[in-house]
Write a structure and sequence with these properties.
single chain, about 290 residues, alpha+beta, Uridine Diphospho-n-acetylenolpyruvylglucosamine Reductase, domain 2, Uridine Diphospho-n-acetylenolpyruvylglucosamine Reductase, domain 3, Enolase-like, domain 1, four-stranded antiparallel sheet, binds flavin-adenine dinucleotide
Length: about 290
């Protein structure tokens, strides 16, 4: 199908894009990689009267590493640039591991980091990864810039903390702490399909070898990407043995609120979370020992 009629604007700067958004907020949509928005428009699931194409806003792309090792990634940075970045591999191994699980190379060549986060699909990999990494999202709007922690950003199905006249400009990710391990695992019917369930894990050990902090981001198991808070808390203070991973997996399965659909029942998704959380926690813990 063809999209409904729309007015097209191609601003050359963030200020210009924000001025357009301020003028048209409720009837406008930002066009980033177009990999979710254009299909939604073609299916008439979205019908913005005005499209603000930010592909020509160069200042929104790029990856910077700060003195403390943290990353700042522009919202328009393409997913395949993130995937092949040595800076990302060094500072945020979890993000590096998760990238190949997003769709297919052709889609990652066009899709952007910010587009996936702003779209907030509960089945997408990046929102769950950002939750597990403790990322912060930078938004700009008429009243200036604000930073929104990932765990205050995702509200419900395709809903975020962004106001209609605000734009996501960049994503900050803390450098991975020493004695940390990560894992990303998901289950999809075919590689490249949206997953039936998935888990992003970060674990950090203290000097006594027990778990100092843990975060588990889950995808495809509730209305919004979510953190399994109880499962993560249960890991803290343990040696992260197999039995601890199993305990966390059981708690995570109790924290989710999956719906059944054509592809998987709610019970099957709960079963997947049990299996995937256990597997991811074991893999993340083993990764810490690998690095000595
Ligand atoms: C066949 C197919 C398979 C896919 N499979 C997967 C998959 O397995 N996993 C997965 O995670 N994704 C998948 N995707 C989606 C893909 O990752 C998209 O690239 C991503 O969801 C959206 O990024 P985009 O840059 O294309 O954003 P767009 O489609 O341009 O925009 C998406 C939404 O975000 C808003 N937006 C974009 N940028 C900003 C910004 N800077 N500030 C405010 N709002 C903004 C837009 O207005 C729109 O509402 C798939 C897509 C296709 C077509």
């Amino acid at each position: 199908m063809k999209p409904p009629v729309f007015e097209y604007h191609a601003p050359g700067s963030t200020d210009e894009a924000l001025a357009l958004l301020g003028e048209h907020a409720w009837e406008a949509k930002i066009l980033a990689g177009g990999q979710s928005l254009v299909p939604a428009m073609n299916f008439r699931l979205a019908s913005p009267a005005i499209l603000i194409d930010i592909n020509g806003v160069d200042e929104l792309s790029g990856i910077e590493t700060a003195a403390d090792g943290s990353l700042r990634i522009g919202a328009m940075t393409r997913q395949n640039v993130v995937e092949s970045s040595d800076q990302v591999r060094a500072a945020a191994p979890l993000l590096h591991k998760a990238m190949p699980w997003i769709a297919h190379p052709q889609i990652r060549a066009r899709g952007t980091l910010g587009g996936s986060i702003a779209h907030a699909d509960p089945a997408a990999e990046l929102p769950a990864v950002m939750l597990a990494l403790g990322a912060e999202f930078h938004a700009r709007g008429p009243s200036g810039e604000r930073a929104i922690p990932a765990d205050e950003f995702f509200f419900g199905l395709l809903m975020t903390a962004l106001a209609p006249d605000e734009m996501l400009t960049a994503i900050s990710i803390p450098a991975q702490a020493p004695r940390s391990g990560t894992a990303f695992v998901e289950f999809a019917r075919r590689h490249g399909d949206y997953a039936l369930a998935g888990v992003a894990v970060t674990l950090t050990l203290g000097s006594d070898g027990t778990c100092e902090s843990a975060a588990l981001g889950l995808l495809s198991v509730s209305e919004a990407p979510m953190l399994a808070v109880q499962a993560a808390s249960a890991l803290v203070g343990t040696a992260v043995e197999l039995s601890d991973a199993e305990g966390a997996a059981e708690l995570a399965a109790g924290e989710i609120d999956p719906t059944g659909d054509l592809h998987a029942s709610a019970d099957y998704r709960r079963h997947l979370v049990r299996v995937l959380v256990r597997r991811a926690v074991v893999e993340a813990r083993a990764g810490i020992e690998d690095r000595g």
